Amino acid sequence: MSSLEADPEVGRSVVPPSPEGTELLEGAPVALGGPRGFEVTRTLPNKHRRMVGAWCFLDAYGPHALAGSPGMRVGPHPHIGLQTVSWLVAGEVLHRDSLGSLQEIRPGQLNLMTAGRGISHSEQTPAAHGPVLQGVQLWVALPGAARDVAPSFVHHPDLPVVAAGGLSATVLMGELAGEVSPAACFSPLVGAQVTLAEGGGATLPLRPDFEHAVLVLDGSATVEGARVTPGPLLYLAAGRQRLRLDAGPRTRLLLIGGEPFDERIVMWWNFVGRDHDEIVAAREAWESRSDGGRFGRVRGYDGPDIPAPPMPTTRLVARGRTR
């Protein structure tokens, strides 16, 4: 999924950090494709806290009723220096990319695209689709040593599941409670969808060297004593060995985490780089791709490529994970 804004930071309000090391990061509505576009709620990057581990971007969308609507239509656009992680709760999305990949994703499956030195892709609701679309799109910043790797795309139709009492957790990325995802990671992190039975509760083991965050997808939950509903992202500082979850109605939530990412990055439009000049070069390569060039061509999407926004009048500055 594309960020259509040059500067994707959102979340101007935040509940101050508590003595327990939690912060409630407010998201903001963003219309992909303009005011009448497909609406998502963005919680990362947040103006107060830009990253959770290497996770640097989080859009949640839906449930959207698709009757009389084209659904998602995100035209070809470029990426560098990151991985895109696509996860659905309901519906279908069709992925195309400049490597020639053509892959539909459904709930319970993972699409993982590693941009590395450069790739372009599109995403759209396929012609044959269900009545509702709901999911999340995340980006993982690649560490400096891996940010120029060759681009790749992998579809994972089967993922490991942790089951205990009233809890079921599908491990998207990394490791949780002894279950390891097959998805490639370039830094220590975790991503999982956790489902809780109505009125149920459970305790998940955590790596104490990881910081974590929880986003409620459906229902509501009490997380370490904090009541959370769909919308904001609950940040949890490093140092925890376990996480207590208690559900209201049937609840689905997203857990992300990782080692604090200590590299300073420039995150502009759909690019993750290290300095202004790197971003300028990527933008120029996208805008001047008469022969495909660095980002290749996406074949089969029935619409225009997304143009890059103008560069700012001042130089972009690398930033750390917090303000």
From TrEMBL:
Its cofactor is Fe cation. This is Redox-sensitive bicupin YhaK (Pirin superfamily). Residues 193-288 form the Pirin C-terminal domain. Fe cation binds at residues 77, 79, 121, 123. Gene3D superfamilies: Jelly Rolls. GO terms for molecular function: metal ion binding. Belongs to the pirin family. It comes from the Bacteria. Residues 1-32, 298-323 are annotated as: Disordered. The keyword Metal-binding applies. Keywords: Iron, Metal-binding. Binds 1 Fe cation per subunit. The lineage of its organism: Bacteria, Bacillati, Actinomycetota, Actinomycetes, Micromonosporales. The keyword Iron applies. It holds the Pfam family Pirin_C. Residues 38-140 form the Pirin N-terminal domain. It comes from Actinoplanes digitatis.
